[in-house]
């Protein structure tokens, strides 16, 4: 006889089977018995006209809930079955709670995402231009997103021209407007990039960017496209198909446009490096040119003639200086000779005068006179003429050999 199971063992087997079989469930119904616990957990029942099932949304998942839960609200629940063995109760562990309408959109979103992925729409991304000259902005001309983008663009890079294509981005006809304007922007001449932009909103507000028509227009465009829809937490089909996803419209400008301040610093650094390299090359070329000029001078006949003319001029100057020196010396010598000549003439004159005096002396020399019988008359050491001697006056008669006294006698 088979051994019976304990109640706990039976509940454990049921738990294992249910949780493995119903790992993921997608259920819709109406909320009842709603309890929001102070711990942050949410407990409620999901019911329809025929049955009900217990549900729990733990605090971790409840923090991301975008829907306000209330009694009687028709919702769709994504989660899995779980069994509590001590009581044998089972319930849905909710991961996400959506309104019925949102749930249908989520299912459509996932189906289109898988379809486009299988067709290769999410591959072969085109690179963004490093310095876009002309950019098409597909957005609402009256939306705040446009002003935010233009403000950021003005700060970052003022050399880009923006073509604003006013587009319906919400509601009926939005998907057609977006698709047509993507094709229009792609056909414009000189467009470097296209930016799809829209501010934040609910999933229904942003749904036009989850449409297959829009995805086709993005995929077939030849111009690089940035998808900048909503906030960073909003992930749309256009984000996957586009060549680049931006978290916000402002973020698209930061991704696309260079930072002019950084580039000014970079250009200044490049300019300094270029100047240094240019000065180095210029210095090297100057030395090379000087060397070539020297070589050319030595090989140039005109230069040789100029060099010889310069040497001749130097020799001429040296010769003139030498001649001037010689002339100066000879002039000084001639002056000396002339001076000596004058001195000689003066000497001759003195010599003649001396000769004359000597001759006169010789003529008047008493000794010469004495030879002829003459004597000199002196009185008190002075020479007198005979006529100057008075009668009876005593005087001396002097010859070279003797002196005698005499007296002039009176006349008879």
Encode the helix/strand succession as letters: HEEEHEEHEHEHEHEHEHHHHEEEE
CATH fold type of the largest domain: Rossmann fold
Mean pLDDT: 86
The fraction of residues assigned to DSSP E strands is 15-25%
> How many DSSP helices?
11
Name of the CATH homologous superfamily of the largest domain:
Hypothetical protein af1403, domain 2
Structural class: alpha/beta
Spatial arrangement of strands, main beta sheet = 1-2-3-5-4
Q: What integer value in Å does the Rg equal? A: 69 Å
Helix content: 40-55%
CATH architecture of the largest domain: 3-Layer(aba) Sandwich
How many structurally independent domains? 4
CATH class of the largest domain: Alpha Beta
Distance between the termini: 237 Å
Overall geometric form: rod-shaped
Profile the largest sheet.
5 strands, mixed, barrel
Unreliable segments of 5+ consecutive residues? none
How many strand units?
14
Task: Explain how this protein is built.
The protein is an alpha/beta fold and 412 residues long. The chain folds into four domains: 7-107, OB fold (Dihydrolipoamide Acetyltransferase, E2P) (Beta Barrel), CATH 2.40.50; 131-258, 3-Layer(aba) Sandwich (Rossmann fold), CATH 3.40.50; 266-321; 367-407, no CATH class. Helix content is 48%, strand content 21%. The chain has helices at 7-21, 59-62, 100-118, 144-156, 174-187, 212-220, 237-241, 249-256, 260-299, 301-364, 366-371; strands at 25-36, 42-47, 52-57, 74-84, 89-99, 134-139, 161-166, 193-198, 225-229, 244-245, 376-379, 382-383, 394-398, 403-407. A five-stranded mixed beta barrel has the order 1-2-3-5-4. A five-stranded parallel beta sheet has the order 7-6-8-9-10, sandwiched between helices. β6, α4 and β7 form a beta-alpha-beta unit. The protein is rod-shaped. The mean pLDDT is 86.
């Amino acid at each position: 006889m088979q051994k019976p199971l304990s109640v706990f063992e039976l509940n454990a087997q049921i738990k294992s089977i249910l949780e493995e079989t119903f790992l993921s469930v997608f259920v819709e119904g109406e909320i009842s018995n709603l309890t929001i616990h102070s711990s942050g957990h949410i407990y409620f029942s999901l019911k329809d006209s025929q049955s009900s099932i217990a549900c729990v949304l733990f605090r971790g998942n409840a923090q991301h809930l975008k829907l306000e839960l209330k009694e009687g609200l028709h919702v769709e629940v994504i989660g899995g079955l779980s069994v509590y063995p001590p009581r044998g109760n089972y319930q849905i562990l909710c991961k996400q709670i959506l309104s019925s309408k949102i749930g249908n959109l989520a299912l459509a979103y996932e189906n289109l995402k898988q379809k486009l992925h299988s067709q290769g729409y999410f591959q072969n991304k085109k690179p963004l231009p490093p310095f876009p000259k002309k950019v098409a902005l597909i957005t609402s001309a009256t939306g705040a997103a446009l002003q935010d983008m233009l403000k950021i663009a003005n700060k970052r890079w003022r050399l880009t021209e923006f073509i604003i294509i006013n587009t319906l981005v919400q509601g009926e006809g939005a998907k057609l407007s977006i698709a047509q304007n993507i094709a229009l922007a792609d056909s414009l001449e000189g467009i470097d990039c296209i930016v799809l932009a829209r501010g934040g909103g609910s999933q229904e507000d942003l749904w036009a960017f989850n449409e297959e028509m829009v995805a086709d227009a993005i995929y077939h465009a030849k111009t690089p496209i940035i998808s900048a829809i909503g906030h960073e937490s909003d992930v749309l089909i256009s984000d996957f198909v586009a060549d680049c996803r931006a978290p916000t419209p402002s973020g698209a400008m930061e991704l696309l446009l260079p930072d002019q301040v950084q580039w000014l610093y970079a250009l200044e650094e490049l300019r300094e490096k270029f100047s240094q390299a240019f000065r180095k090359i210029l210095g090297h070329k100057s030395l090379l040119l000087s060397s070539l000029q020297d070589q050319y001078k030595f090989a140039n006949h005109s230069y040789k003639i100029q060099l010889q003319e310069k040497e001749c001029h130097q020799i001429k100057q040296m010769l003139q200086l030498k001649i001037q020196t010689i002339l100066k010396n000879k002039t000084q010598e001639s002056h000396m000779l002339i001076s000596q000549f004058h001195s000689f003439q003066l000497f001759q004159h003195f010599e003649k005068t001396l000769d004359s005096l000597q001759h006169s002396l010789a003529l008047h020399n008493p000794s010469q006179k004495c030879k002829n019988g003459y004597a000199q008359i002196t009185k008190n050491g002075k020479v007198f003429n005979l006529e100057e001697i008075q009668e009876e006056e005593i005087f001396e008669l002097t010859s070279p050999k003797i002196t005698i006294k005499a007296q002039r006698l009176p006349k008879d």
